[in-house]
Design goal:
Layout: E1 3-5, H1 13-24, E2 31-33, E3 48-50, E4 73-77, E5 80-90, E6 93-98, E7 104-108, E8 112-117, E9 120-121, E10 141-146, H2 150-153, E11 155-163, E12 179-187, E13 195-202, E14 215-217, E15 223-227, E16 250-254, E17 276-278, E18 283-289, E19 296-301, E20 307-312, E21 355-358, E22 363-368, E23 381-385, E24 396-400, E25 411-415, E26 423-428, E27 434-438, E28 443-449
Parallel strand pairs: 2-3
Antiparallel strand pairs: 1-21, 4-5, 5-28, 6-7, 7-8, 8-9, 10-11, 11-12, 12-13, 14-15, 15-16, 16-17, 18-19, 19-20, 20-21, 22-23, 23-24, 24-25, 26-27, 27-28
Bound molecules: calcium ion (CA).
Length: about 450
Amino acid sequence: MPGVGVPATGAAPGDREQEMFQMKALRPMLVLVLVGSASAVLTSAAVVAQAAPQEAVDPFAAPPVRGLPARPRVLESDGQLFRVVPITGLARPWALAVLPNGDILVTERAGRLRIIRDGALDPEPIAGVPEVNTGAINSGLMDIALHPRFAENRLVYFTYSKPKPGGPFEDFQGMRDAATVTLARARFDGGAALADVEDIFVADAWAQGTSGARIAFGRDGRIILTVGMPTRHRIGNADDAQNPANHAGKVLRLNDDGSVPFDNPFVDQEGYRPEIYALGIRNALGLYVHPDTGAIWETENGPMGGDELNVIEAGRNYGWPVVSYGTDYTGNKIGGLSGTTSEHPWAPGMEEPFMFWNPSPALAGLTFYTGNAFPAWKGNIFIAAMGSGNLGSRQLHRIVLGQTGGTQRRGNRTLLAELEQRLRDVREGPDGLLYLTTDEPAGAVLRIEPVDDAP
Ligand SMILES: [Ca+2]
């Protein structure tokens, strides 16, 4: 069922079976909006589809932009002109944080922390980052976030893959080394090095393979930390995502010193790690706390055709690896490295995604747009997509919510596909502009700004 799907809100499992029956009977049920990938052409008449405008027109440039531009270029999407300003010289940039003075901290996957000062990349990395493991696609030095009171305390937080002590697992059937998600805190005074670098939380989630880790501060000042657990390896197992006795495949909630908040949902429940906030997570690569509602939004890489946008609530179970709208890359629903353990995409007691994507675009960073630079985008959700091969296009998704903020009408528009870049992160800066990272060997930070001098 290619396209972008919205699960029927509030439907009980029995209702869902009835709906599947209706779908087989060619009755429209899901509101689907096609995305740009050619493989996303509808193959079933059982859905209502509306093609989104796809061809971006660049009114100022000839020839049209293909690939990362060397200089600022004006692009267009859905009638909105915007200028893309590339800041190049980065290698596999993962995440970024815009400082109050407009400088930008950028993590590079290999374990370097870089800084863009006054719009130009400082050639010297910032010293003090611990050794990182880069053994899997989504590993290395990953997310970065500023303490809510950074202007006063200068505290920065970052996540990384911590190598297992003792080095590579040569004694473990000759396999590559294992790592676990670690949250570190440091002080950054704006100079050339971090100070007081400290691991404040080392997850019990030793794994061989991809395990993404995002952080965001809740409105209450607590840290939300995602720990991925996508597939089945000999070190770490997808089933760990349902095991409350470890941190793999979970959303965690911590105090800003790494300790356990007293009001976590399972803090007094036997058999549960007290840091757990939600379970059943595959590989979360985007995380955002809405400043008005406090809602926790998460993007998650599913298996083939199962990328998700979720709203994470305390104590809930988000299904992995029991249920998913995707399948293993063998095409089998059940089993394999990445298949589920259930034939059905839903189960009692497990949360449905807010949206899911098929094919999977390899969704990564996300933000709501709350600024004033682009009034037409206000309230929209932006999601970076890394794509590749059968994973759909490398582009930025723009999700338009319904009038009620809600769940009835959701549109998916896309932009920046012509750049053909693996878009890893998207953030809104304090200036109301959007900032992205391109996770490429010759990567960049992209600043998206309005075009005031447009004809
Ligand atoms: Ca899920």
